[in-house]
Amino acid sequence: MLPDESVTPTDDPLAREMTKRVDARATPPVRTRRPLLSRVVARLVVTLTCSALSVTPAAAIVVGGGGSAKSDCLVVFDTPVVSPQSNASRLRCADGDPCDADGVVNGRCQFPLALCGNSTADARCALNGLGTLIVAHSLDNGEPGFDPEMQALATRAGFVLEYPETRADRCSVPTAVTVAVQGPLSRGRCRKGQKIVAIVAQSTPVDGRVRTDKDKLKLICDPAPIGCQPRAFFSSTFDRVQTQIFDHSCALSGCHDSQTVRAELLLERGASYGNLVDKTPTNAGASAAGWKRITLVDATHGDPVTSYLVHKLEGNLGPGLGKRMPFNKPKLDDALVDVIRRWVEAGAPSDGWVPGTD
Predict the structure, then answer these.
(1) Is the separation of the CB atoms in 255 and 327 below 8 Å?
(2) Which of 45, 201, 240, 268 has the fewest CB atoms lying closer than 10 Å?
(3) What pTM does this model have?
(4) How is the chain split among helix, strand and coil, in percent rounded to 5?
């Protein structure tokens, strides 16, 4: 779901930080009521400490994202300073650090990120005609990599950019791009998570030639130094199942999302529970055996042996019972399969914590 585009920057704390740096000399956007977010910031190695959402107005950096310096200004990334860095195409933060915009240890980092067209931050690039802009994975067209945050990033850029766009330093309202750590996994460990934001921009013809600006920005979220605790990341066992397993590995474009609904099974948030508990699978072999997707014995007990979901994740499937899930991907970490099994054994409660899953 897209963020509510009717929210003005003054209602959004991230946007409020960015609007403090409005370029008063620029004209307001033609197709939006938002103030123009325009900055001319030198491209440099940042030496400031993390201060993304402090009371003091945040500094900002412009990241070209790679490619030829002569075309790298067509579209750039703009973000509050989130980490001292030596690599201009990578931003790194630890969960819960001041550079994490949500400010809490919750298993994920938020990076406020805006797109700016026709940047004047690098004098080596004098192009000022933006013809097209594509944000990778922003189209909900069935591709496995579709990301609603990339869709939001592209949509917000569309509110301030007109094509062909010749005005300088046209910047969108920032989108909070979320990067989750990997975990908790076996032995209570967590690993860094990362997300790559990729864009392709093309110029209007210059001397009969169209220039291309291909940019990438890697966002890295490291686990919090204080540890990796499920109760800090999730509100219940089922929330852990939904967030860490279904959202990450199952409810993806082309699989069990609302567009595809493979095997007539929707595992998106808000729909997964009702589509699993005490429901007959579409697989003929599992159905003939009397299995359910999740088999309940009573309100507090379930049967993993006759629960198709458990077999699909464990991979112990006989002839005619289909393939292990996630399909064509590595098997889930043993700790996550154990969480599913314990949850089913406890009757698949929709709230509360099952012992051994927290």
Answers:
(1) yes
(2) 45
(3) 0.72
(4) 20, 20, 55
